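Researcher: Batch entry, complex prediction.
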Amino acid sequence: MTPRPEAVRRFSFLRARVLEALIRYGFMVLFALVLFAIILLIAGKDPIQSYRDILTSTLGSTYGLSEVLVAMTPMLLTALAVALPSRLVLINVGVEGQLYMGACLATWGALTFSGLPGWILLPGMILLGMIGGSLWAFIPGLLRALGLVNETITTLLLNSVAPMIVSFFVFGFWHSPMDTNKTPNFVPAARLPTLFGTRIDVSLLLALALLLIFWLLMRYTRWGLEIRAIGGNPQAALRNGIPVRGYVISVMCVGGAIAGLAGMAQVSGFYGVLLANFSRGTGYMGFLISWLAGGDPLGIVLTSFVVAVITTGGNLLQLTRDLPYAVINILLAFTLFVVLARPSLRRSRRSA
Amino acid sequence: MKSRPVFHWLALLAAATLLVAGCAQAAAPSAEPTSPPAPQPTAAPPEEPTAEPEAEGPCLIIGALHGGPITDAGYNQAMHEGVMAIKANIPCVEIIEAENVPEEAGATSTMENMIQQGATLIIATAFNHQYPALELSQKYPEVTFEHAGGWEMGANFANFFGEPPDTWYMMGVAAGLMTESDQLGFVAAFPLGWTLTFINAFELGAQSVNPDAQTVVTYTFSWGDAAKEADATNSLINQGADVITMHVDSPATVISTAESRGVYSIGFQSLAAQQFAPEYWVSGIGYTLGDTLTWLSSTVMDGTWEPIFLRCGIADGCMAMAPFGPKVPQEIQDQVGQSRAAIEAGEIVVFSGPVVDQEGTVRVAEGEVLTADVMGSVDWFVEGVIGSPK
Amino acid sequence: MTLLSILGVLSSAVFSGTSLLYTTLGEIIDQRSGTVNLGLEGVLLVSASAGFALTSITGQPYLGLLVAMLAGGLMNLVMGYLTVTRRANQLASGLALMFFGFGLSAWIGRPYVGAKINGLPRIALPGISNLPVLYASLFRFDLLIYLAVPAAVLVWWLLFRTRWGLGLRAVGESADIAFASGRNPRRIRYQALFVGGLLAGLGAAHLSIAYAMNWTEYMTAGRGFIAVALVIFSKWHPLRAIGGALLFSGAVAFQLLLQSSGFQISPFLLSTIPYVVTILVLVLWGGTRSHSAPASLGRVYQGSE
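Model: Structure tokens for the complex:
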């Protein structure tokens, strides 16, 4: 029998992978749904109706679907911000803080240069957002590269510092007496344009583009190859002349830049204003998604979608089932637990 | 040509998604009420509850959202009780309520969901709900939006609120008379224009009966952070304040903390606060907007709704004063009652000139009066207040 | 700045630092055995809401305390199941636990928002009552506050003077070597997590039952992460945690004092100081394989059974 051509081999490998991923994800989500249904029953709510509510409010209408995509966008970016450093076995838990700093610097741009037209201001704000996040990741990156402190700890600590710096500005220089915990609203030129009259803004396209670029870079460029080499065996990579330290710092900075972009998108696209403490765990959610998806772009998109459906569906549950919105976190957590508890089904994960 | 199996799977997946979406769409209409709210003609005057004839569905669907929990014995509870009063007065009304709506993010989607469930009157009670509601009002011109405490107006967007400054003045009178250390403590959430106005009114009231009275202000920078509120209260007491009051969402923590230290407290937002201070309660103010909201709802129903900047005070029943606590002597109660009568009669106008700020600048000249629209953007404290207005 | 206000800062630091100290002690035990629990925030919330709910139902604050402890222990056991038995990544498991805590605590606590409870009774030491009321009320502490420092000493003794503690620290340094010398790393990590959870539950209980006497969603406001930072700051040593907790919470109280004295330092910048100092401490005294961090912290034990 003639050996199958390369394209066909690749394709059936792809098919098998996609199939495997779908079945695996499907079963896990199903299991989590059953667990949550038990909770709902205990609370005296009808699980079938509740799930129907979640589905109708998310997949049942174009509005619902658009809301899911809106929720998905920051997750895609923050997950990517974790995925890239993870290829170097760097643990970037600091996405939350980088998000805030990106939002902070972008806000400075929006408030200071509010007279500029949108086509100058917005790219400027994007740049500022990326710089902000990048700076925040630079410090842990540098400390790690110099062998001083583990980046896990530094990014975690800086996570707590960033929101306070944002609050300092929000309640200080950027405060207006009419408002409580936010800056003045951004001028229309400083807002990311939305698509089709929904709340989806162009950052979704940016996110998907970046994920695609990431995938291409990792597979097909020398840069990606060197990163994978360092991730596999840093000593050997060093001996082969790959500048490991430089990569550590630059990769952390790029990751931070992407997280900063997510922050900028949040304040410019979604909110239109900088709120103190605007992110309740978005960065951490990105970390979880990236980890669950194994740092794989397709997995990130799928996982973000599922998470976004759950969190968006929770909005309607509050109104129709009289459950506090926060309870939807239980369903989210069950999904996460179920996936976490099956490491044997995954390809080998580097532990810790 | 052999068709690749992967296409089969993809097609199956696509079909499954469409099926789910289709079923969901089919199910969606059943989640909404069947009959649209029909305008009912009413001839009754606004204060009386209107008796509605039987209709197939609710005569009006109202969506109400709160920034915090409706059992907080504070602002959210007061607003919730106001909304519930609508239903008590107009039984055919259906109310969809959402609590703990995070100020910006969830507000838009919550209101959208309510509108999709048929709500034609949205009552947004949290301060920061204003702009999301304003945006939605432009998107849904057939839905009426009422916001509590804001200032924006639109064709289908208006706001309503009580008139706290007058009542704060009265509380200041009570505090000024009860204090022995001449130090009053105020726990505030944010340096918001209205908060500053309340503090100023409080201090002016205290000064009117006790010229040495001072008010010390501390900020928690959160509408509802119990630990910070406890910290702030303790700090004020340690500075010598012996009467504590507040402008945060829920007075519960501040009052319990003051009570545990044996210090007087004055409540705000909801009359339910008194239960937290059985001994050292002085008095308190609460919002009682039930009748106002009922009137607004009835105008929406009969089509006579117009955007008004609605403010009403204690004389109109929108605000109420709590009963005095057991330690307040009768003559102080009488004096507070007198000042209340004087305000209602118009003899005392709280912010009538001359009013001097902390640095000595005259903010309201002799013969002038501070008007309501300016009160929301005040950024100064009157003389006698210790703390930063920024 | 009067004597009263200075004593007030101290009193505030003690009051709000107590819950932080218990939580930190629990996390020290966990981390000494090699587990990083980022889900501490969720654990605290569930314990706080459960304890508050039970106190509200029964009117018995001490009962609520016990329930809060138990809740904390159980939450940490979930963490144990994920990281020890299923060998999942610790950071991810912790964060998932945090989200779980957000939801579960909101659900448990929902009917009890705004409820009024009898907080833990406050007892004055003999002699304090002779002081004027304002001073006396500063130093009327509840049971948990009196037991806080003894608890830290107890944890120190457990970790450094018992066989159990020795085994625990051995697992934290190297689980494989500990296994080779006859210990059961899995069981030890489970035990550490449970005890740590009990302590964290105690910390949460103090917040909702004794200090704020209230329950609202997300009321712990980041204390879980503050505790993780404090563990690092005190270099994984229970006795240093006492000072650290006082410092971290004293800063808050001090800032309030400054605010009402007219000094214009931003409370936000002031609150960042503990974290910045922690990073500096790590940089100056080593943060990766220092003499302080348990070497196998964060590593999932693969095991050979």
